[in-house]
Design goal:
By secondary structure, the protein is mostly helical. It folds into two domains: 103 residues, DNA polymerase, domain 1 (Orthogonal Bundle), CATH 1.10.150; 166 residues, Intergrase catalytic core (hpI Integrase, Chain A, Orthogonal Bundle), CATH 1.10.443. It contains 14 helices and three strands. It has a three-stranded antiparallel β-sheet. The longest helix is centred in the first third of the chain and has 22 residues. InterPro entries: CB, DNA_brk_join_enz, Integrase-like_cat_sf, Integrase_catalytic, Integrase_recombinase_N, Tyrosine_recombinase_XerCD.
């Protein structure tokens, strides 16, 4: 680990030890803050911003932080947009990082008197409609898993993604002990747990995988991971993404950039279109904020048109039907 000022190191420890953030989230905060302080130091010392990686922030003291203004943050965000070509979503994450960090310095450590990030605005994000497979496409995807060494494992994983709406990380984290009867315990973001019901497709796919593959691989390992590699190791998100790509190619769907997360979108969309209310969907998906869940309330134009067509007060348009 690169040397860091104590006030930054303490904040990163606080994120995981107190706030319960995952290592991945902590790494994102560390990256954003390190970039921010390197950039400000380069500007202050009139150094080129083309080689920020070479700048060490280990010797920066708290007085340097106390001198940071709201305008400095706007300058940093402009640099991220214009030079680093960061999207609005990426810049929004950096704003969230800065807000969290300076709030911590003021309210928890009392190292600063004023919070310069308090009025920092978040870039507006044009929320995109989630990309997903339609039901026939999802069935085609599931029916074209290559028949090879890990057919049952891959079929079970894809069934879980498409029926339970799991995140890739959540799927890879599953252990044998997480499955009990028809329920599976999911460890989501921030270590939050939720129990999800397994339908018949999930139960059957899991039983076939356990019987035909996992029992054999289990002889090579003591790892209690539910989904194992050929060597008996827990599968990674990267490996899962490659499996999805292989199935996409095999199915002849050739969906652009199909990922495990887009299978989660598919699952959520299908559940919503088949009667799941927004609160239930929020619980199933493990969203902290319902506004995140609301992206799945999109419905195809044809479905919306059908709602109007099916109105019992609607009649076939015919000039002879009009009373004169």
């Amino acid at each position: 680990m690169k040397k860091q000022p104590k006030w930054l190191r303490d904040f990163l420890i606080y994120l995981t030890a107190i706030k319960g953030k995952s290592k991945r989230t902590r790494d994102e905060y560390e990256y954003d803050l390190t970039l921010f302080f390197r950039f400000l130091y380069a500007v202050q010392e009139d150094l080129p911003t083309t080689d920020l990686e070479a700048i060490s922030i280990a010797e920066l003291d708290i007085d340097f932080v106390r001198g940071i203004s709201l305008e400095d943050m706007y300058l940093f965000l402009a640099y991220c947009e214009e030079v680093r070509q960061n999207s609005a979503a990426t810049r929004a994450r950096k704003v969230a990082t800065l807000k969290s960090f300076f709030k911590y310095l003021k309210t928890k450590k009392h190292l600063i008197d004023e919070n310069p990030a308090e009025d920092l605005e978040t870039p507006k994000i044009n929320r995109k409609q989630p990309v997903y497979l339609k039901v026939p496409e999802a069935k085609q995807f599931l029916s074209h898993i290559p028949s090879k060494t890990h057919y049952y494992r891959d079929h079970c994983m894809m069934t879980f993604l498409l029926n339970l709406g799991l995140r890739a990380t959540e799927l890879c984290r599953l252990s044998l002990g997480d499955v009990e009867d028809r329920y599976v315990t999911i460890v989501g973001k921030g270590g939050k747990e939720r129990r999800v019901y397994m339908n018949d497709s999930c139960v059957e796919a899991l039983a076939l995988y356990i019987e035909h593959e996992r029992k054999k691989i289990a002889e090579k390992t003591t790892d209690d991971a539910l989904f194992l590699s050929q060597k008996g190791n827990r599968l990674t998100r990267q490996r899962l993404a490659k499996i999805v790509k292989q199935i996409n190619d095999s199915s002849a769907l050739h969906k652009a950039n199909l990922t495990p997360h887009k299978l989660r979108h598919t699952s959520a969309t299908i559940m919503y279109q088949n009667g799941a209310d927004i609160r239930s969907l929020q619980q199933i998906l493990g969203h902290s904020n319902i506004s995140t869940t609301q992206i799945y309330t999109h419905v195809e134009d044809e479905m919306i048109k059908q709602v109007f067509e099916n109105n019992p007060l609607n009649i076939e348009h015919n000039p002879n039907n009009i009373e004169k």
